[in-house]
Design a protein that fits this description.
It contains five helices and five strands. The chain is of the alpha/beta class and 136 residues long.
């Protein structure tokens, strides 16, 4: 049985230019067997949603250290949904205050990973979320 790889888009929305963490996560996910597309820094929500559509991804991972997560993350989710990508799982990694987590979840973010989250934790979350989405 040939199972397709999970496709993950990793993006740095907004003006945040600190991409070392995103690159580490992208490389680790690739090494764990995921197919990873890294869009680079300074992406707009529209660019991210369009890339997700063009690449037919299962997951969009947003890395944000700038503090703009409450503006950028909901906008990415909104644009994904507007393009009919209702089944795309959205994750956020970076600096997210605890009080913002419930509002991000309400906005459609599935997983939130702060400093100290292990790459294995992220990979396991993705595998479980995709399996659950696909009814496995």
């Amino acid at each position: 049985m040939n199972q397709e790889k999970i496709r993950v888009l990793v993006a740095k929305p907004g003006l945040d230019g600190h991409d070392r963490g995103a690159k580490v996560v992208a490389r680790t996910l690739r090494d764990a067997g995921f197919e990873v597309i890294y869009t680079g820094i300074r992406q707009t929500p529209g660019m991210i949603a369009e890339a997700a559509l063009q690449e037919d991804v299962d997951v969009v991972g947003l890395s944000i250290l700038s503090g703009a997560h409450m503006t950028l993350c909901p906008k990415v989710v909104e644009l994904l949904r507007a393009q009919g990508q209702d089944d795309v799982i959205v994750l956020v990694g970076g600096i997210v205050p605890d009080e913002d987590i419930p509002r991000l979840r309400e906005a459609g973010v599935h997983g939130i990973f702060g400093p100290g989250a292990s790459t294995r934790e992220i990979a396991d979350f993705i595998e479980q979320a995709v399996a659950q989405r696909d009814g496995q």
